[in-house]
Amino acid sequence: IYFEDETDIYFSRQLVNERLQEAREQIPEGFGDPQMGPISTGMGLILFYYLKDENGQYSLTELRTIQDWIIKYQLQTVPGVTEVLGIGGWEKQFHVIADPNALLRYDITINDLIQIIKANNLNVGAQFIEKNSEEFIVRSVGLTQSIQDIENIVVKADDGTPVFLSQLATIEVGGAIRRGVQTMDGIKEVVSGQVLKLYGSNSSAVIRQVEEKMGKINNSLPEGIKIVPYYQQKSLVEAAVNTVSNALLQGIILVALILLLFMGSLRPSLVVALSIPFSILFAMIGMRYFGISVNLMSFGGLAIAIGMMVDGTIVMVENVDRLIRKSSKEISRIQIIAQASQEVARPILFAITIIIVVFLPLFTLQGVEGKTFKPLAYTVSLAMLGSLLFALFLAPVASQIIMRRPKTLTNSEKEKENFILQVLQKIYKPMVKFLIKKRIIAVLIVLILIFMGILIYPKLGSE
After folding, report:
1. How far is CA 355 from CA 120, 244, 279, 285, 384, in A?
2. Distances 284 to 36, 44, 296, 446 between C-alpha atoms, Å
3. With CB atoms 3.0 to 4.6 Å apart as the test, which of 126, 176, 345, 421 could cross-link to 138 if both were Cys?
4. Is 67:89 a contact under the CB 8 Å cutoff?
5. Number of alpha carbons in the 13 Å side-chain half-sphere of residue 418
6. pLDDT in the model for residue 328
7. Is residue 29 domain-shared with residue 123, that is, in the same domain?
8. pLDDT of residue 398
9. Residues 316, 409 within the same domain
10. Can you list the residues of the chain whose pLDDT is less than 50?
């Protein structure tokens, strides 16, 4: 059953349970009762483990019993764990193999036998007894513990003589019917368990607590038996996050180097580089506020936005640097920076706002698409908003603190430009002049590129 986003899962389960109660009354006998699964999701399987018998002295049935009655209930006490599933081995059962001839002799049906065994395998409360101003709770303990207990169940009385179950059937220990096995390396059959986390809980935190609990359980298990984890979702999450984190770090380093290379001065480059950590921290604060976890898509959004984070600050710092070089010493740096900020504030605001607006359609996505792409849209938008705030308000302040007026203003502006920029300008200026004179060529180039894109798009692969 799928519900809309933001639906209270506990309230939904309550409604489903009420409908199941109504459905049970209409289900024909023998088809079983519908049951709700644990409060988890398809990604709730966070840890797999198996039981290692170091001495080889325990059977698969005994290992499965240890899993189902010792390990399972202790792991379920860990906060955030909703269910522990046992797989492999044999679930211990007492098998009652009826003798058809004996049943005919005593006029007993299979259904009678089933009902009698159920009635003799119960613990029943018997209220209480008052004695000496005290109340004593009375319980009738009738759960069978062994083959002998089952054999001694009285099925009926024949002329005053009790007929025991042992006279009608053979009782033996066996395993439940199973439809598969759990093997290790495809060779040895083992007993394993799977831990499901509670819906909405943090996978890494739950796995850490489960591992701590497993260490304590190992100390209390029979000698020679140990819990050995063989899969943890934490490794998958960490690998994904580390991949994007490394890409993020590499992007920051590359952006810083390119800034230094093209801006030609350490101080302006430092001011621009400061916008990256500020924008990332701003985005993370926003992620915390909007309840967005650190995952592949959210960190991927930050990696995408790395290059765009510095755009507004570059425009601001370049204009500040240009005016500082051109202005006379009589004008204070504060006045120069204020003038530079006023000149470029509006284009910076428009440019970054357009980038944020581009991601707005992603916020309208619903279902799986929304779950997948909304974190990316949030992080990119938050990072760009942080870069806008830095460019308009903090970059001028940082420029006042970090940037300095050149010692001499006698050289021409061209001589003070970065050598790489001078080389690029020698190529760029003639090209622009040519395209301005031959505008028809520029238009044709654009149209050809658009036409080529239209032809190639349908042939692109998709999934």
Report:
1. 74, 22, 15, 20, 8
2. 37, 25, 14, 40
3. 126
4. yes
5. 18
6. 77
7. no
8. 92
9. yes
10. 414-415
